Amino acid sequence: MKIITQLCFAGTSDEALKLYERAFGCTVKTLIHYRDAVAYGWEKPNEEINDRVYHSEIMFGDYEVRLIDLDNSEKTELTQKVTMYVGFDTEEEVRNVYSVLAEEGTITRELTCPPYMVIIGELVEFLLIR
């Protein structure tokens, strides 16, 4: 058994994917847009959402995360209320990822070195995941 996190967006999954590839070096295992789902006969045609992500499987090492676009922002509110913690092996990794996410995100805690860990920081990335 494995637990899979799914992040829901309102049309910005592709942006999130590009950001996470740049920040974390994740890899795309599967990426299906709505236009592909229509071609497979899974969904009815809707030009407004053709470019949105229907299903994706993104790998952060051995950990799978799914990114999808829902049809409106009200349905994505739960994702926006989720806090995700990401741990790294080195201070350098933390600093690199933090700097990429902070470019367009909002810093809520500057990088600091508390006595209980090597380094910690907190931010809300521009796609509203804290």
Automatic annotation (TrEMBL):
InterPro entries cross-referenced by the UniProt entry: Glyas_Bleomycin-R_OHBP_Dase (IPR029068)
UniProt xrefs under Gene3D superfamilies: 2,3-Dihydroxybiphenyl 1,2-Dioxygenase, domain 1
SUPFAM superfamilies, per the entry: Glyoxalase/Bleomycin resistance protein/Dihydroxybiphenyl dioxygenase
Top-rank taxon: Bacteria
PANTHER family according to UniProt: PROTEIN YJDN-RELATED
Annotated protein name in UniProt: VOC family protein
